[in-house]
């Protein structure tokens, strides 16, 4: 028997969270559906695309903060839609100004519009600037263990490798790379992008990930609120399964009720 895994809390930037599911706010039909889905998810960290969502920069438009209260959720401004380090840094500084000095951000610098894969060179450059500027950076990256380690060494507070391309719903395409990142990381590792349904979230958690961030899988489901509840349960289930430790895989059958020592 191997030693049982110990459950430890999710701690990001010095704050402890109960939920390991992080959710986005885009692609819902309206703000009311956004509110209902996020409540159903049980998420405590909610990410917001500053370049696409009004959080006060457009006073004449509906404000997301009217339904996602900052005193109830940890807001995670992100740099979705940025293709250079310069744009990403500028977006984070805008978010800090709009949110009264808020310094926890999700960095993503994209390489092209077709794949939405991260531009690793620009991501590393932006991470260095933001960390030196006092930001606490959770960073979207590819599933390269070397890059993930470099981002940790720069000072990012969490590393967020993709499971598959953003919005693809393909699930965890390379679990082995995710596993290698987990083996070396000393900061939380959260799968970001690629989840399509509840089983994908469970797989991520069964690998030992500290959490999962998703948006499209919930927002574009036929019933987003119900899917949000499913994702909540999936993340919890996957975490419990990882803690429990699965049985060994075997090539041949092994009877559930051994017959050794029984009478006929």
Explained architecture:
The chain is α/β, with parallel strands linked by helices. It is built from eight helices and ten strands. It has helices spanning 31-41, 85-98, 120-132, 145-154, 175-184, 198-206, 216-219, 224-244; strands at 10-12, 15-17, 21-23, 45-49, 74-78, 104-107, 136-141, 158-161, 190-192, 211-214. The strands form three sheets. Strands 5-4-3-10-9 form a five-stranded parallel β-sheet. A hairpin with a 2-residue loop joins strand 1 (10-12) and strand 2. Helix 1 (31-41) packs parallel to helix 8 and helix 3 packs parallel to helix 4. The longest helix has 21 residues, at 224-244. It is globular.
What is this structure, in a nutshell?
By secondary structure, the chain is of the alpha/beta class. It contains eight helices and ten strands. Helix 1 packs parallel to helix 8 (224-244) and helix 2 runs parallel beside helix 3.
């Amino acid at each position: 028997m191997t030693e049982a895994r110990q459950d430890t809390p999710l701690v990001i930037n010095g704050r402890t969270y109960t939920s390991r599911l992080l959710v986005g706010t885009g692609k819902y039909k309206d703000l009311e559906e956004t509110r209902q889905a996020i409540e159903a998810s049980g998420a405590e960290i909610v990410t917001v695309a500053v370049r696409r969502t009004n959080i006060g920069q457009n006073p004449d438009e509906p404000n997301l903060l009217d339904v996602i209260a900052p005193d109830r959720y940890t807001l995670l401004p992100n740099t979705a839609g940025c293709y250079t380090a310069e744009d990403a840094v500028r977006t984070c500084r805008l978010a800090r100004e709009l949110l009264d000095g808020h310094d926890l951000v999700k960095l993503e610098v994209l390489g092209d519009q077709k794949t939405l894969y991260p531009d690793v060179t620009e991501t590393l450059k932006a991470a260095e600037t933001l960390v030196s500027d006092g930001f606490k950076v959770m960073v979207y990256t590819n599933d390269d263990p070397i890059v993930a380690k470099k981002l940790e060494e720069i000072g990012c507070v969490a590393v967020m490798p993709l499971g598959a391309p953003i919005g693809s719903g393909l699930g965890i395409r390379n679990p082995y790379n995710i596993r290698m990142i987990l083996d070396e990381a000393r900061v939380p590792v959260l799968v970001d992008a690629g989840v399509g349904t509840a089983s994908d979230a469970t797989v991520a958690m069964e690998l030992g990930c500290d959490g999962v961030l998703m948006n499209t899988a919930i927002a574009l489901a036929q019933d987003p609120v119900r899917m949000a509840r499913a994702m909540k349960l999936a993340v919890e289930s996957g975490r419990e399964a990882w803690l429990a430790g699965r049985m060994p895989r075997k090539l041949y059958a092994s009877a559930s009720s051994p017959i050794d020592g029984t009478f006929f």
